């Protein structure tokens, strides 16, 4: 590559569009949270926070900060723009999303904590993988990230699922649905990473589009589905 694979005008346009979608998601989450009485705002307010953080992250990326050109040894991605701002967003939002889902399931606090810690390790090693200048070591860090991800998935489909069914059939069914969508959507991030940052098979612009679609699905759509489908049995009340 003679020129670094940087975002073009199209990439920035997509980032602004996703910023717009998240702004709408934030307004919707705000409305959904504050129409609830105070004690019922725990789950919706986590979703609101996720949308606020992502809106700010997309504003930064669209307006041209939060990216850096990375030099890798690989043939396809010798120089490429990596939007590290994503990982800062994910560092806060993925724990919040997991907190929503595991509280819904009624998972014991210690297991929520270990799931969230694994998730943080996943994001931090994923960021380091994206920034590492050597393609070989990049896949080493990717492997750490993937192992942490597998731990997260294991606790979601194992213990958390059985806990959700202990809270009743309605909660179990909703949990099954939401965790199923989560497993598929989150796994798709790994595929996009491998095709984008990992190998340079897709352009930086295509990567922006793919992550944009996944982010809108995994944050506002998924979060609003959780809150709007919540049966009374599944409420997580704030202390009185
Ligand atoms: C990376 C690359 C390294 C391997 C793994 C990854 C997983 C990322 C995930 C991201 C999820 C993001 C969400 C964001 C917003 O809602 C870092 C791509 C395992 C699972 C859900």
State the main characteristics:
240 residues, mainly alpha, two-stranded antiparallel ribbon, 74% helix, 3% strand, binds retinal
Give structural notes.
This protein has a two-stranded antiparallel ribbon with strand order 1-2. The protein has helices at residues 9-34, 42-62, 85-105, 109-131, 135-157, 159-166, 169-198, 204-228; strands spanning 68-71, 79-82. By secondary structure, it is mainly α. 40% of the residues are buried. The model has no long low-confidence stretch (mean pLDDT 94). Helix 1 (9-34) runs antiparallel to helix 2 (42-62) and helix 3 (85-105) runs antiparallel to helix 4. A hairpin with a 7-residue loop joins strand 1 and strand 2. The site of retinal has 17 residues, from helix 3, helix 4, helix 5, helix 7 and helix 8.
Strand content: under 5%
Reading side by side through the largest sheet, how are the strands ordered? 1-2
Shape: globular
User: What is the CA-based Rg, rounded?
Assistant: 18 Å
Indicate the mean pLDDT.
94
Structural class: mainly alpha
In this entry the ligands are:
retinal
What is the quaternary state of this protein? single chain
Order of helices and strands: HHEEHHHHHH
Uncertain regions spanning at least 5 consecutive residues: none
Largest sheet: 2 strands, antiparallel
Number of strands: 2
Helical coverage, percent range: over 70%
Q: Give the end-to-end Cα distance, rounded to a whole number of Å.
A: 61 Å
Helices, by number, come to 8
